[in-house]
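Lab notebook: predicted structure, single chain.

Context: the supervisor wants predicted structures on file for every construct in the current expression panel, including those that have not yet been purified. This is the next one on the list. No modifications to the sequence; it matches the entry in the shared construct table.
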Amino acid sequence: MIQKSLGIARIVTHVIVFIILTMLTQLGGVIYLISRRTHPLIMQKVTRPVLQPLVKIAAFLLIYLFSMLLIIPLLAKPFGRVPLPIFRKDGLQPLRLSTCLLNRHYVRPDMRHAALDIAMKMNRFHPGTVVNYLDGGFPFFNSFPMLPHLSHNDGKKLDLAFLYIDKASGSPSDNAPSVIGYGVCETPRPGEINTAESCREQGYRWYNMLQQIAPQGNKERYVFDSLRMRALMTVIIYHPAIHKIFIEPHLQTRLQLESDKIRFHGCYAVRHDDHIHIQL
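Prediction complete. Output recorded below exactly as produced.
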């Protein structure tokens, strides 16, 4: 009876791990199942029981990294997806490497070209500026959900991080305050439109969800760079490939931006005063 219960517990554990990895990375669950094929060999070759779990984890990580770097980009092409650069290219890079490790940096070829073009044009206005991207999409299939996003499911959407000044040095920074890329917000000043408060009063409590999750400890080290942000938004607005932009209304007003491309994303989404959403 005990052995049967343990067997059921193992199966449930594997199912949970598979689901979590699939939700986070799309292919992590499949790679987890593939890595389990190495377990009999590991059990045979690694005689010390205390080391066996560590070797199993190492096997999974090696297979995962190999797949992420070499296999998935090739398989994604027939689905119309290409990866954004993992390392800095033409002024474009991921804000956090975890975006790439989780396979959330795949977009349509037109979006990749647009993102690189936007970064290069920004460097003409403000040399040395790094445009940091956040979540794009998964490598395979339309309509596959990428939480917590509502629409990042077709390779046509990409989030970009805000630009900041390092408060200590007073110099433009190529970093951002959020450790996850989201949730550290440039909140409304007195007299500005407070969409977050309005949405909360209407019962949309998840509108502020990421702000409640993300650590806020780095916020005081950075200052919102209005000058470069206005330049970045102008480049995005005038880029012919970009047809829709989401940013919080109070920042649109503060940066004096006028464009039919800028839309309000609705209270059913999450707030956009921590990043820019662009889409083809």
